[in-house]
């Protein structure tokens, strides 16, 4: 039993919790795992460090933020995910974006399996219109079980939060359902179109390139039906092209930041583009285009030669 100056009741040390049981410390507001000091009268918890700290200047939070969100059947608590990131076995990901947890998050301390970045929680809709399933919208189906059906896009099991078309029996991750993809046709996989995907599509997983055998950690092209993956570098795309709608040659490049508003557009089809995707780019005009928009209207190679600046004899 422990008495602290900042809480009116004695605290009892609990060592009988499982190692994977999580809780939120009411002093440092960190998400913690394992043993704690608890007040059963107030549902007040402290981790071992905060309970035994002699620092009287550290304040105890007066208000604990607990919300009832449509994405999960249990209450979720706002907390920080700082110290757990230093743990070697720490491998928790956000149920929405499927990226490693960081910063401010919301956690379910009841089932210990549901986590959301605060940013993701604020932007999750109750229904998604997905390019992978344009026939019907996909409403959210929260469920507390550890694993659900495989996602129709990435074929990995959906955990914690499911977007699902009941009429078509079509389950998807949120990150897959909202993903912006483009298609190209290439002779390296002639049976189906290849989707242009970025690293955000696969979360922390990195599929293996079928051409070189190395992990595809950045942008790639994929046939999800055949589980075929290939690096952009392994896909023979022209590094410079001449497009019918633009005066100068376009160069195949990676990220280009257009403005401070986090909005990215293709200047050829005038629709939004995914900032993870490589593009064809004219630096002189700041002209940006989807790869598939360019390849569908490429002029003959001699048109590129006409636009290139010849090297001087002195070089």
From TrEMBL:
Residues of the signal peptide: none
InterPro entries to which the protein is assigned, alphabetical: C1-like_sf, DC1
The keyword Repeat appears for this protein: yes
Entries under SUPFAM superfamilies matching the protein: Cysteine-rich domain (SSF57889)
Keyword entries, A-Z: Repeat
Keyword Membrane: no
Highest taxon in the source lineage: Eukaryota
DC1 domain sequence ranges: 6-51, 132-177, 244-294
A Pfam family reported for this protein in Swiss-Prot or TrEMBL: C1_2
Name of this chain's protein: DC1 domain-containing protein
Organism encoding this protein: Gossypium mustelinum
